[in-house]
Amino acid sequence: MQQVKTRRKKMSVDRSYSPYEVIRAYNDRGMMKWGAFATGELTEAQNTFEKEKKDDKAIQALPHHLILHLLNQSFSNQVQIKVKYQAKDKLTEVYGFVSEFINNQVRIKSTDKIYLISIEQIIDIN
Q1: Backbone dihedral region of 43: left (phi > 0), alpha (psi from -120 to 50 degrees) or beta?
Q2: How confident is the model at residue 105 (pLDDT cuts 50, 70, 90)?
Q3: Three-state SS sequence of 11-47
């Protein structure tokens, strides 16, 4: 059995009607001209998807006993920590040292301010 090679016929548009040489000699690049539009739309869709994915990501709070353990370790060893806590529908991060425990709150000293944070509001510690 012999393979038959088929040639793809190039479509062309008759532009002989035009008085301008530039239009008569124009060679259409086909789908190549749409590449930039497709790439732009794809990039925009991916950026939107990533933004929605970040917004949808549920914040998993550390277990209460682990938060207490990490706060205690920071206090005992005087190690700087980053505390992420929820206050007034806003997620806030504080860098500093645990200086004191008061009832159900912890006092954290940062370089510019002293924060008194309820332990119940703490979501994450690094």
Answers
A1: alpha
A2: very high
A3: CCCCCCCCCCHHHHCCCCCHHHHHHHHHHHHHHHHHH
Say how far apart CA 54 and CA 57 lie, in whole Å. 5
Q: Mean pLDDT, to the nearest integer, of 81-87? A: 90
By the 8 A CB rule, do 61 and 123 touch? yes
Nearest Cα residue to 95 out of 108, 77, 78: 108
User: Which of the 8 DSSP states describes residue 72?
Assistant: H
Apex CA 114: angle with CA 123 and CA 93, to 5°?
30
Query: What's the pTM value of the predicted model, to 2 decimals?
Result: 0.54
Number of CB atoms found within 10 A of residue 70's CB: 19
